[in-house]
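Sample 3 of the quickstart, ligand 3-methyl-2-oxobutanoic acid:
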Amino acid sequence: MSSHNTAHRLTLTDFARFYQSGEKIVMLTCYDASFAAIMDAAGVEMLLVGDSLGNVVQGEDSTLPVTLEQMAYHVAAVKRGSSRAMIVSDMPFGTSQLGPEDTFRNAAKLMAAGAQMVKLEGGTEMAKTVEFLVIRGIPVCGHIGLTPQSVHQLGGFRVQGKDESGAEKLSADAKSLAEAGASMIVLEAMPGALSSRITSEISVPAIGIGAGANVSGQVLVVYDMLDISTGKKPRFVKNYMTITGSVQAAIAAYVREVKAGIFPAAEHTY
Ligand code: KIV
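Result:
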């Protein structure tokens, strides 16, 4: 059965089914009710209220200034605009790093605002926190590779896991997060061979952004794929606006291409 026939708001059970059947999962970032309605109608299955809103909505040069209250505001708007897609909220910088209890308190505010899952950046060092949240009822999406909240530690927005030790670390990070109970893991900006390996090593969906095609699903920053964001786009972004001519058609084309395994192509892969 196609995922588009599902009337209720999608849940982890639906994503487990997509994953088991090998159906690609389609995620896009979303920050407001109008875009949420368009994405819902187009069949986007997961709306990620990303802290990338710091860059593309607030005009900051990183995600670091975004606050928990701002995230909750955008989550509530996305919830009001959608009825089918699962809503995932980023935990902004400083809200998931101080240990399990503090992270739970912050995540609870995002869940109360309408999120069904929180996403937090980091690998093995976050495993205890992930476990703490999951056993208390908060689904968690991990995020490894290029983690924008660590941009200053990483020395810029760079592809990760290019050498052997980096690749081994990311592989170990993914396994720790999955073992701790993460429901899915975003893999950002890494060689396609590495994301493919990680995808085969874990038993939860791996959602790629700049991680090649051999993963369980894809996510992009919506302003990038609509060519609204300013500045140089990363190699992994495909401009769907130019090839379709409307927001609705661009998002529908993205859904079709992810489902069919057409996006990302080799030219979008490291
Ligand atoms: O904040 C965001 O948009 C993200 C994606 C890049 C995955 O975390």
